[in-house]
Amino acid sequence: MSTRLATGGTRLNRARQVEFTFNGKRLHGFEGDTLASALLANDQLLMGRSFKYHRPRGVVASGAEEPNALVGLGEGTRFEPNQRATTTELFHGLIAESQNHWPSLDFDIGAINSKLSRFLPAGFYYKTFMAPRAAWKHLFEPIIRKSAGLGRPTEPGDPDRYEHFHIHLDLLIVGGGIAGLQAALVAAETGRKVLLIEQEAHWGGRAVVDGVKIEGKTAAEWVAETVEKLTEYPNVALRTRFMGSGVYDHGYALAYERVSDHAPATGGPRHRLWRIRTGQIITATGALERPLSFAGNDTPGVMLASAVRDYVESYGVSPGDRTVVVTNNDDAYRTALSLHQAGLTVPAVIDARAMVNGPLVEAVKAAGIRVETGKGIASASGGKRLKSVDICAQAGEGAVLESIACDALAMSGGWSPVVHLWSHCGGKLLWSNDYFHFHPDETRFPTDDKGAQYVRTAGIASGAMRSADVLENAAQSAAAALGVTAPKAASATDDDEGPMAPVWVMPQGAGKAKKSKMWLDFQNDVKVSDVELAAQEGYKSVEHTKRYTTLGMATDQGKLSNINGLAVLSQALNQPIPETGTTTFRPPYTPISLASIAGPARGNTFQPLRKTPIQSWHDAHGADYEPVGQWRRPFCYKKPGETREEAVSREVRNTRESLGLLDASTLGKILVKGPDAGKFLDMLYTNMMSTLKPGKCRYGLMCNENGFLIDDGVVAKLSENSYLVHTTTGGADHIHAHMEDWLQCEWWDWQVYTANLTEAYAQIAVVGPNARKLLEKLGGLDVSKEALPFMGWVEGELAGLPVRAYRISFSGELSYELAVPANQGLALWKTLVDQGAEWGISPYGTEALHILRAEKGFIMIGDETDGTVIPQDLNLHWAISKKKEDFLGKRAQERSHMADPDRWKLVGLQTLDGSTLPDGAYALDEGANENGQRNTQGRVTSTYHSPTFGRGIAMGLVRHGPDRMGEVLKFNKVDGSTIEAKLVDPVLYDPEGEKQNV
Amino acid sequence: MLKFTCPACRIEACESELVNGGEAHLTRSGPGDSDEMFERYLFMRKNPKGVHFERWRHAMGCGKWFIAARHTATLEVFGTYPAQAHEPPADVIAAIKSRYPAWEGFK
Amino acid sequence: MSEARLHTPLGGAGFKGYVSFTEVAPTGMIALRGDLANATVAEAVEAATGQGMPAARRIEGGLDGGAAWASPDELLLFVPQAEAAERTAALAEALATQHALVADVSDMRAAFTLKGAHLRDMLAKLTPADLSPETLPSGEFRRTHLGQIAAAFWFEAEETAHLICFRSVADYAFDLLKEASEPGGEVGYFSI
């Protein structure tokens, strides 16, 4: 059984007991435990079930590389699946549940998959669910969806806070082991701005556990002193629980701080994503131990040798009473010694190498531990808990020499440097024939915006496997990163190690039966046999094999499985490992919460919602909003009991018959000023603006260089060199940007300044036959037909407020648009509402606005235009100057396709039965195209029910439309039926313009 | 996440503060020009794997457009300069040539 | 006109967290575009604000009379709200003979004053700008983005800063600042 040892555990505070629950069971651990160590201490070795075969799984590792011990943490809206027990710090009240099993962890029906495993080989899904085609949607997919997936999804409404944090550094050091600390010491002295981060809660990394001596002290002492010393440098920041997540271009890096995972609900944010811009990066990310592939290597109780050592030394936990060690290198002997010193039994060290020597081996032998060389594991067995291992000759096919009873097995297949961050942004790798791993190729490094190296590795991450070399390498990396001479590194001693052997599979001659029990990727259930099958089926590229077998595609991204998988693939392809190469390393290094990526972009601050100065009034008066860009504009104002349609009808009728009010503040208002302002606007608009007289307004169209309409609106000439350009709501920002683009980049010698004044003013349209009466009642401004004719503007005080009144109309009615400084917008609006009561004034929303303009045949950018429509399509020839030599879009409109007489052109559409045409419906034509689709000859661009006419009205673009007035066309409906409509003049309401001109 | 130094305000701006405006140093073509010329102006872009000149606007900042010379594969930046320049300044050309002697040159 | 008829976007709302902030009272602001090297422009700016011409990226003075450098040909001037219209007119008059643009933009923005020892930490949560005191000393007028909106801010002193953004997104800015200032969110990076 696994249990808590009576003594030991450098990370524990045995004085502080911590209570937590696992699958509803109350358990105890100590402060300093991880969830994994606390579960082991409670003899809860079984921590989950695997993804594909639902095999019982125990913890394998002690850190971020853990593939098996994934749990669901928390409850309710704080629940989160797939959290690694090995990196979850224990806290009082922690609630965890195991995953991927039904009905229980101990008894799981899905485990039947394991029995069927020979029917579920690599590429099973691709091969099986090919045919019949219809079965995928109705049969296969539903079943697969139900049985696939890891953990259950979270619930909406996460109450925690997540944030970003931006900093700028000279040097980011990732990894707080002895290499990172040594690098920081060198960097600290330079006075440069340094951040040193460590993913765990503790400094020192492996050296502390592995008995390294530094400067004559224990590693733990040296680490504590160094951290103390570093905190005294004002230029160095040190942070724990802080994972280097990704390295990107131009010195950009992401780091993931788990602020309060270990102490939830303490008031602070939960996670903080640091967005770092740094001159240099040093990754001192250490190395990960590799498993060995033998039959039954996924049995609970089989663990990495280093993890066993961690549990004993750091957490005072015995993973088992009898632990066999199996290895291809000397490092695992440290685990045998740890166990022995803790008073636990090590029945044997099984070493695949024929010859072993060196101080670690001698020490193990001297401790009386049996060492078997040239041997391997034929199989490990025990189901939910390891019971025994069979020993065989490594060189053979697996004939069992002996069976050893044990309840834990510590395995070591050697160590691989953590090269992820080095590789994220282009660092390349070399294969080592001494340590049989990939390590950074110093000559092919990631480059920054200057083309210079900006990522370096330090310590074991560089491939420096001895502590003295680790420190030396770290000091040199830091010095090189900051362009200083490397000072002397701290001295270190550790035990000599003999050469390791490249053993990937045990035994060497294992047959198919054994290989189909050898797990490479524990989380995704990929076995040696799967990779060999892929090779046999012709997969040569490692990237393809990965996707075919799903090797390394689980949430651990193959931290334990990739190198072993590559080795197996290379062997199957009969080529050296470096020739096979690696798959691509992509951020994040370990999974980070999606909420941390979103940061503040959630809830109220998901995106900015723009509000006009009058919004609070709309809120209080039944506004039913619709999004218009980032604005929310009232679609209509609903009275109690009204439907949307009823409200819209009322608003239209009220405006036509008496008096309406529109919040038009969202319209763009761009001041264009300078001696060349007229000339500039002549280039921007299709019509002539420079001839406009002060005090007058003119409607204009803007096109891009492709000739397509991009905006329209009214330009008011304020003074000789000064124009106020009104744009559409959506156009305000980008038309201003468009102007600046042309002024800065093309006509930069023209004397024109622009200013986007959109938000400086509230703008209110007072519309309807009684509009003038209301303004006259308010007093202060002469708005008579003579003083303020149609398409004119005046400035003055209205009801004591400073306004500019434009006599323009987008409805066909007598209409004034009043611009007032934004802070006084609400006051003006309220005054208009109060004083207009005698005419039954009513605000109207965007839908009424649309209907009013459609009844009048006015086009709307975004309805009649879609980025492919030119003014000529909309019969707006009158607004295209023939006198001007040039304007934006002019040349494009001369292109053959633009001048094609067959282009669809604007017409009004009137249904024969009075119904409303569906938006976007197509006008059907005879025959079909080469794809068998019905030919079309036009489409609906705007369609509404008109309260004024009591029937549907619409506009559309139709081939030769203006020449076909009176013709009836069929328009399709979604249900397959058609609806007939006659081509008519789009201007239905007051074609003579008498109403707006009164 | 790229960064460029805005030549107008000298701020080292993050990509999120900038807006890309496509290839720089295009010559505008207009009325009177042939279809071929206009097509070239409107549609034909170099899209090189290598040294490239492109327009950026410091939109979340001083609002000025500038031109950046950069390598589209290595992302190396050789310099930024005002959008009004008709061709890359000599120091930018020199910076490119010192790194890529075989570069065919501007235009 | 009476103050009661003025509605700033947030009505002077504020929040007290580890950083405290309030929307400031209506402030006169004038946009000026022109030749900043021109002596007449400098004189007109001084007449309007009492401040000299700011160097690139700097602000002279503050909300009650200040000149902020916004771009090589643009300043944002701060004047008392009650005098904004008058000073805009005077400035336009002074620059009438040269190519310049002057506009009263007093109502276009929301302005906040922020105070607290962890001010740099709080802002660093929301903007990519380098908040370190060397790069952003007092008086540096930084235009950048705050979350997803354009904003500008400057430190008047180490524990006091001002921030402006467009008025339509004042609510968004307020909510961003509020969440970033919630107690318990101290980062302890720029100030420990």
Any overview of this molecule?
The complex is a heterotrimer of chains A (998), B (107) and C (192). By secondary structure, chain A is an alpha+beta fold. Chain A folds into six domains: 3-113, 2Fe-2S iron-sulphur cluster binding domain, sarcosine oxidase, alpha subunit, N-terminal domain (Ubiquitin-like (UB roll)); 162-287 and 416-493, FAD/NAD(P)-binding domain; 291-413, FAD/NAD(P)-binding domain (3-Layer(bba) Sandwich), CATH 3.50.50.60; 508-575, BFD-like [2Fe-2S]-binding domain (Arc Repressor Mutant, subunit A), CATH 1.10.10.1100; 660-839, Gyrase A, domain 2 (2-Layer Sandwich); 889-984, Elongation Factor Tu (Ef-tu), domain 3. In chain A, helix 5 runs parallel beside helix 6 (219-231), helix 13 (528-536) packs parallel to helix 15 (562-573) and helix 19 (644-657) packs across helix 24. The longest helix of chain A is centred in the middle third of the chain and has 16 residues, at 467-482. The relative contact order of chain A is 0.07. The mean pLDDT of chain A is 95. By secondary structure, chain B is an alpha+beta fold. Chain B has one domain: Folate-binding fold (2-Layer Sandwich), CATH 3.30.2270.10. Helix content of chain B is 17%, strand content 29%. Chain B has two helices and six strands; from the N terminus they run E-E-E-H-E-E-E-H. The longest helix of chain B has 10 residues, at 90-99. Chain B is globular and about 40 Å long. With 192 residues, chain C is of the alpha+beta class. Chain C folds into two domains: 1-25 and 108-183, Probable tRNA modification gtpase trme, domain 1 (Gyrase A, domain 2, 2-Layer Sandwich); 27-106, 2-Layer Sandwich (Alpha-Beta Plaits). Chain C has helices at residues 39-49, 84-94, 119-124, 170-181; strands at residues 14-16, 20-23, 28-33, 59-62, 65-71, 74-79, 101-104, 109-115, 142-146, 149-157, 160-166. The longest helix of chain C is centred in the last third of the chain and has 12 residues, at 170-181. The model of chain C has no long low-confidence stretch (mean pLDDT 95). Chains in contact: A-B, A-C, B-C. Chains A and C meet through strand 9, strand 16, strand 41 and helix 23 of A and strand 7 and helix 4 of C.
